[in-house]
Write a structure and sequence with these properties.
By secondary structure, the chain is an alpha/beta fold. The protein folds into two domains: 3-106 and 275-290, ATPase, nucleotide binding domain (Nucleotidyltransferase, domain 5, 2-Layer Sandwich), CATH 3.30.420; 145-242. 48% of the residues lie in helices and 20% in strands. It contains eleven helices and ten strands. Strand 1 (3-9) and strand 2 form a beta hairpin. It starts with a strand and ends in a 5-residue tail after the last helix. The model has no long low-confidence stretch (mean pLDDT 93).
Length: 294
Amino acid sequence: MAAVIGLDVGGSSTRAVRSVDGAVVGEAEGDGANIAAVGDQVAGTRLGEVLAAVGTDGIDAVCAGAAGADSPVTVATVRDLIAAHVPGARVEVVHDARLVLAAVGRDAGVALISGTGSAAWGAAPDGRHARAGGWGHLLGDEGSAYQVALDAVRHALRLLDRGAPVDPLTAALVTDCGVAHRTLLVDHVYQVPDKRYWARRAGVVAALAERGDPAARQIMESAAQALAALARQVLDRLGIAGPVVVAGGFATHHPALLDAVRAHLPGTAVELLPVAPVHGAVRLAERLAAGVTP
């Protein structure tokens, strides 16, 4: 085996795990290092911090799963930022959705992510792969915590347009945002563009849905339908039956959402990722150290 580091580079946090001969010997977590969100310089600093925390001496390979690693330019930039801290190591960067299947030791199936954003990525036994979604909050991220929160804001504004009274979902959202009145939600959305802030507001919607609030339940049902549609597109393109492995903070913290996704994928095995995705990066890094490009 070899000495490797796996990285899970997200918008909210960055996790690093160091493994030597297949055994975890160091772990660290730091701030998000998504270059689209924080820029190259800040991302490089934050990556350096988590790498230093687990130690970079004698590292043979590093694999990073990075949110938004879609274009060759982005992949090359993140790779260079990491390589600067681990001279001599082989470095590879993949889309963070790829970590999910690797984390459970699967070479085929579909990874379905619902966190701040959303995406589906899958691989077939013959090596073909496909993805759906993951285009960011302006173009997609359907079924994500961010979009659920904005759907709740849209619901509140539709009630306002109709002259309808404040309902429980609107009242809970106004309180959670710390604004005085629902009319202030519009300004609040534009004044606080941080996706992570709005993703955290989705917990209010999920909690009300679990208590039976009809508006919140409809929003969560729409999210489940959107996530299932992402998974179905990848399953169909690859011509595989499954499984679908679900990851991401929003899905993992709200079992009702997972159950609803299952209901929209009848006949398909849908399971929750049992370990952190960063362990998938470790597995891919071990392959890289052995000369196999992820």
